[in-house]
Design brief:
There is one protein chain. The protein is mostly helical and about 250 residues long. The protein is about 75% helix and about 0% strand. It folds into 2 domains: about 25-205, no CATH class; about 210-250. The chain contains 12 helices and no strands. It is globular and about 70 Å long. It is a multi-pass membrane protein. One of its GO terms (biological process) is endoplasmic reticulum tubular network organization. It comes from Erithacus rubecula. InterPro entries: PER33/POM33_regulator (IPR051645), TMEM33/Pom33 (IPR005344).
């Protein structure tokens, strides 16, 4: 009995390991909490269980929380702020800077469901990764049902990233439509175009660039069929040529 008492797990030891891990990584923990809050607010916007008026409020909260997360991540990547052109150029290479800009573009605009999905899914993926680290710090076998969910999420990560890239691309014509429908500002399509060029040139996430290529291949395959009307083919080829000219050069 004495041996089993000394060698057995101490009450709260597993939870203590998780707490120590969280306290040792305060900035990562802060981003984890803000990402979980982003997921919570995004879900309540997509599923307006508390009413449509509250849903619009959750839309803004989700984007503000995402802006906070992006700012913290950018500070983590570039800790020494400098008011210089070189620092700005370096910051624009970071994905966190892209989504800080993204949040600022849409936070005061008319709520668009399509615009919340990238924020929701990126936050969910990053929060899942850190949650797994917290569970590992707690115990290697803790909360098995949550671990199974996290593993399934990780297995579908590539499909989720492609879906996010698809949202990023089709939000461009959506901002133009919002402008003509009176729900967007004149500057929004131009600023969003800048965001899209940054995503296209991203070093860490090539999915936007890959999806542009895949969409072009699919459209060209369809319009080259004999059944496709000539005017539709010409219109699509002109559109492809125009979009290709707008695409930034990627090293």
């Amino acid at each position: 009995m004495a041996d089993s008492t000394q060698n057995g797990p101490m009450p709260g030891a597993a939870g203590g390991g998780a707490v120590q891990f969280l306290m040792a990584n305060k900035l990562d923990t802060a981003m984890w909490i803000s990402r979980l809050f982003t997921v919570y607010c995004s879900a309540l916007f997509v599923l307006p269980l508390l009413g449509l008026h509250e849903a619009a409020s959750f839309y803004q909260r989700a984007l503000l929380a995402n802006a906070l997360t992006s700012a913290l991540r950018l500070h983590q990547r570039l800790p020494h702020f400098q008011l210089s052109r070189a620092f700005l150029a370096q910051a624009l290479l970071e994905d966190s800077c892209h989504y800080l800009l993204y949040s600022l573009i849409f936070v005061n605009s008319y709520p668009v469901t399509m615009s919340i999905f990238p924020v929701l899914l990126f936050s969910l993926l990053h929060a899942a990764t850190y949650t797994k680290k917290v569970l590992d710090a707690r115990s290697s076998n803790s909360v098995p049902f949550l671990r199974n969910f996290l593993e399934k999420l990780n297995a579908n990560q590539q499909n989720i990233l492609k879906f996010i890239a698809c949202n990023e691309i089709f939000l461009m014509p959506a901002t133009v439509f919002m402008l003509f429908s009176g729900q967007g500002s004149l500057l929004q399509p131009f600023i969003y175009y800048r965001f899209l060029t940054l995503r296209y040139s991203s070093r860490r996430n090539p999915y936007c660039r890959t999806l542009f290529t895949e969409l072009r291949i699919v459209v060209e395959h369809l319009i080259m069929k004999p059944s496709c009307p000539v005017f539709v083919r010409r219109l699509c080829l002109s559109g492809i040529s125009f979009i290709s000219r707008l695409a930034p050069n990627v090293a």
